[in-house]
Amino acid sequence: xxxxxxxxxxxxxxxxxxxxxxxxxxGILQVIAAGKLSEENPVxxxxxxxxxxxxYGDVAKGGRYVPVKIEAENxxxxxFEGIIAISTMESDYGVYxxxxxxxxEGDGKTEQSCMVPFGQGSEQVFxxxxxxxxxxxxxxxxxxxxxxxxxxxxxxxxxxxxxKLNYLDGAGISYSxxxxxxxxxxxxxxxxxxxxxxxxxxxxxxxxRLRDLSEKQTKAIMDWVKDGGILVLGTGERVDDTLGRFAxxxxxxxxxxxxxxxxxxxxxxxxxxxxxxxxxCVDIPLHGANVLESESGFPLFQAxxxxxxxxxxAAYDFADISDFAAQEPSYVDNMFTGLLGKERIQNLTxxxxxxxxxxxxxxxxVINSGNVNRLPxxxxxxxxxxxxILLAGPVVYYFLRKWEMRHYYWxxxxxLSLVFVGVIYLMGMKTRFKxxxxxxxxxxxxxxxxxxxxxxxxxxxxxxxxxSLELSPEYSVRPINRRASYGTNSSVRxxxxxxxxxxxxxxxxxxRLNFHEAAAFESNYLQLRKIQENKGKGGIVGEISYxxxxxxxxxxxxxxxxxxxxxxxxxxxxxxxxxxxPGETRNLEELSVCHAPVGEEAFVAARITGLDSxxxxxxxxxxxxxxxxxxxLLAFYMRRELEGYRRxxxxxGFSNQQDPQFTxxxxxxxxxxxxxxxxxxxxxxxxxxxxxxxxxxxxPKAQTGSYDYIKNxxxxxxxxxxxxxxxxxxxxxxxxxxxxxxELLGNELLGRVYRFNGDMYFYNFNSxxxxxxxxNKEKFSIDxxxxxxxxxxxxxxxxxxxxxxxxxxxxxLPMPMVKGREK
Length: 823
Fold this sequence. Notes:
alpha+beta, 9-stranded mixed beta sheet, 35% strand
């Protein structure tokens, strides 16, 4: 009985404890929920309240510049003065603060827009307002609306028929590696600066009057394209609205009136689907276009490179195919997969998975060197040490013994040691850093009306203490970090209480960058960027024509300084200009043209800068270090901006100027590189209707073997079979197979790359077999090619390398150049 009473009391006590804990737990949940609510939607309890909008319709993602709009209201009579602080986390879990001044009149409101580089290490951003004493007034947490399962392709859309373009939203791209997200745009949301479109991967315009946008808005769109964006234009019946404003810049000739056509989309299914009847289409003579879709030779969808970006034009209005595209999701998939290419798709997926370290390591390679004048002269140090050993040993002992003063030996040696310590200290003065120092590499990309300046900077300090750097306010600042290494705590929680690694303070006169967590000589990599008008119309200008392997034209240096190691880069061709004096003009007909590999940037850069003339590395040689630094920067630029086919030429050169425009801080030491580049249009200097172009305008289909389109190279010892699409708009007259110059691939400092030295077999459509070609023959006329060209102007070639060993290195294939006439 006693045991039963004890068990009963025990059950009652346990029940009471459970009830109490449940009550406490519920209370804690309410407090947490209230905290979260107040954090995301703060109650107006202070002198200032705010509303925040970001991205486009509160859509954004990390790794991009994102427009943030803050509306702040002062509820008190006296003026408010403080700052707007925006904090974001990078992929290495470092937190960065961006601070902007804020002033509000008494009982007033203000609206402020900021362009903030959202980090890749978190799905949220904190925005707060602090008073001039640093006290928190109000804060807000921005939770980014992103897909947590698949990387997204942001497609900004300008259209009066937005509801008909819903098929662009949610489409799987490249085997569903990406998912498209349609973001509606309008006159009010299109920015006036290119950086405002940095969030977009693609901008599509269809059924929209572009002239309704201001000149600054349309210029921002074109600047964004030139800087790497993809612009897709639908035409059809409204071709004048969507294309008219850009026609002089994009077209070779005037376009015709729209006509009704029955269209089969080749890229969808097997091409046997029912045609789209009565689709209004326009034949667009897009300059330097690669036809991606056609109907019996009529170009339906074509794309052309515009500096670093792509302009794509459809012969129809995308709203007119809404029923078809909604039923055939592969249409959107194939369109964007073809436009983006493998590299862009890979970069987008890297962003989603927390960012890659590719940018970090590439930038480090470019700017991780320094001023060679600070290197110690090892020979002199060895000489001083040997001299000290001789003096402190036999010499001093000999003379003291001779003078019978040996008891002074240790005193003399001690004094001698102090003297040599002083000598070595004085010798090392030039190798020591006393304050903040930086190395940089700046690329000045100049077009007729725009200058894009991008600087990659490595900021360091020799002490274990916080330090700062003064910057010009015109430059946007973005940190470059590597992804957090394996073993790092991946559960780092980002809150508004986390101490920042660095903070940027903006005002009208300057921008100050403060580093709070600073270890001695720790590298801090930044990208600084500015876009401005080319008011002085300076730069590198000229005109180039290219036909049948011959390059004509002139290039002029309009800078007021010597342009060193300058060159002209065409797709697969290289022309060395050397050093150009201010105002000097070079006639390209007087210079030799060298066939260059299209994807081996390091080898081309080494030839331009002279690095290929060295047999071994020597960091004590100032000329070698300069050539190496320039070669690394040029290869970095080519790899990022010039991959794939491009119609225009690119002229590059270097300057020895050491006057970076991004900082006015005279108390720091700077050392860096300045590279200048301009795009030059290339024309065919021939009779009207003749065409000369690379067969690699469109990526060939690899039927067998391992083939890299970017490098136009095969790998290993297996044969490769490629199907080239020569285009439905050309009547082929001749094909020339251009071999890469052997001297460009012979630099042992850069590794080994082979030139193709084997047999080519052309597929014979009449016999159904492959015919072996003469090894020494490079040019084939239409009479010789008639059996090897398909009705669709395709050509299939098998390459068999003669080397028997599996070297593991790339083998660069010859580039087919096609000459013909317009159909």
